[in-house]
Amino acid sequence: MRFPSGGCVHKKENNMKSFPGLLLLTLFLFMISCTTGQHIRKQVSELLAGDSVFANAHLGVSVYDPAAGKFIFSYQDNKYFVPASNTKIISCYAGMKYLDSVLVGLKYVQLDTALVLIPTGDPTFLHRDFSKQPVADFIKGLQGKTYMATNHWGDEALGRGWSWDDYSDYYMAERSAFPVYGNLIRWFQEKGKKENPSYAGDTVDLFVYSEPEVNGKVSFGKVEKGAAFNVIRDRDKNDFTIYEGQEQHAEIDIPYVTYGIETGLQLMKDSLRTTVLPLGGNLQKYWFDAAKPVYSQELDSLLKPMMYNSDNFFADQILLMAGMKLTGELRTAKAIDTLLKTDLIGFPDKPKWVDGSGLSRFNLFTPRDMIWVLDKMKKEFSWNRITGIFPTGGKGTLRSYVGENGRLYAKTGTLTGVLALSGYVITKKNRTLIFSVMVNNHTQPTRVIREKISSFLKYLIENY
User: Fold this and answer.
1) What is the per-residue pLDDT across 165-175, written as a single tens digit (0 to 9) for each?
2) Which residue ranges of the chain lie beneath pLDDT 70?
């Protein structure tokens, strides 16, 4: 895959002098291709020149035609940008490349006196979106002493460059070797009319509860008139403050503190009535080599919600699982280093890559990096599989982009001041183009920038 600087490049062929008809056809195609390129350049120029939306922002755009093997437009596509959740494209590639079609949810080895479980980082265990739980069924059937080993875990619960004050928000669940319930607590508020009031004005029954229950203190904060139901967790422990809301029915997901595998083992014991103890010593290599797998969910049933809903937790755990398959360790940095030295060594601009989700502002990729990995994905995996995993226009996180189904398959990326969109677009002439648009340091409403990018994609669909 070559990376020209843009514009129309044509090679003169001497043998065409004897074929005037063919020469005229070639000149005609030359004029069409250059005109198309000029139109695209004009479209992007209109995004830039004199437009207050992008006046003070950084913009990179790249459009690649894989059938022709060339770029039809590039603007600052070799510049580095914070990609936000476009990082999930690379995590998705790693999962598709290295993980089995059915996830290994757990490994185990039978010793003379006990059973040792080896967690794989599978985020689907007791997750409410997965009704079938083969790993839970396996654990419920265990007899005798059972331990869980985690010395192959080598990460922090929160990633480098994550916003520290988002720790209590659903989208920043902690990473762990043994996730349970998606490392989230779901809190519910139910209000009803009180049937037997004890005094005048005592008319409302209020119920607040969580699924699952987690050990920790619960208190109630000051009630604000007209406020929505909310729950705030203490930063370092599983203590929760409940704020009553005006809603009759409300729910909210809050990450819990994992304490390694401690909270997960406690929640599993409460749910499955099975006790698993943390292994005091180290996991022996021959145990690891002899361990047998317990399978859980189909891989693509995890990749699809990761891409459709931009699920940060799934993305980070998928990268950890791919890393374990490659290196035998649950360590994000080691997974990334190994991938960049092997399958992803061909990035045109060496990225700075630190997590699987894109939550970190330390991530830096160029638009043509995104083009390269999307093209690699298209070459290595079936188109049906890709379009079954990526959301299409008007669906999932693409609900605000190009509503015409089947013309757009892409991944969004959004942080404060950051908006990115990279993926595939199918034109009315049935050409599949790979594109990447990255905007950093903008101060405009996200909706306005989405509209600009969407109109640019519509232009590609209609005119190329």
Assistant:
1) 999 999 999 99
2) 1-37, 39-51, 195-203, 403-404
Average pLDDT, the chain: 89
Same domain, yes or no, for 440 and 381?
A: yes
Residues 79, 110 within the same domain: no
Instruction: Based on the fold, state whether residues 127 and 224 are members of the same structural domain.
Output: yes
Rounded Cα distance, 387 and 48, in Å: 31
> Same domain, yes or no, for 171 and 125?
yes
Please state, in angstroms and rounded to a whole number, the distance separating the CA atoms of residues 173 and 175.
Answer: 7
Cα gap 76→419, rounded to integer Å: 16
Is position 20 within any domain?
no
SS3 89: helix
Task: Enter the tokens of residue 230.
Answer: 């909310």
The set of long-range contacts for 30-39, using a CB threshold of 8 Å and a minimum separation of 24, is 33/8, 34/8, 36/72, 36/463, 36/464, 37/7, 37/8, 37/72, 37/73, 39/459, 39/463
Task: Please name which of 353, 365, 420, 370 lies closest in space to residue 71, comparing C-alpha atoms.
Answer: 370
| Pair 294, 307 in one domain | no
Q: What is the CATH number of the domain that holds 409?
A: 3.40.710.10
Residue 11 is encoded by which pair of tokens? 């090679």
DSSP state of 233: E
CB 393 within 8 A of CB 408: yes
CA distance 129 to 136: 14
Does residue 29 sit within a domain? no
Burial class (CB in 10 A: 0-12, 13-18, 19+), 196: exposed
Residue 91 covered by a domain: yes
Q: For a pLDDT cut of 90, what percent of the chain falls above it?
A: 74
> How far apart, in Å, do the first and last CA atoms of the chain sit?
21
pLDDT, tens digit (0-9, with 9 covering 90-100), for 137-186: 999 999 999 999 999 999 999 999 999 999 999 999 999 999 999 999 99
Please provide residue 30's backbone torsions phi and psi, each rounded to the nearest 5 degrees. -60, -45
Indicate if 292 and 150 belong to the same structural domain: yes
Q: Are residues 191 and 58 in the same domain?
A: no
19 assigned to some structural domain: no
Give me the pLDDT at residue 456, please. 87
| Number of domains observed in the structure of the chain | 2
Distance CA 394, CA 405 (A): 7
Which tokens belong to 433? 């183009």
Q: Which domain holds residue 361?
A: 34-96+303-463
- What is the spatial distance between Cα 438 and Cα 80, in angstroms, rounded to a whole number? 9
Do both 135 and 168 map to the same domain?
yes
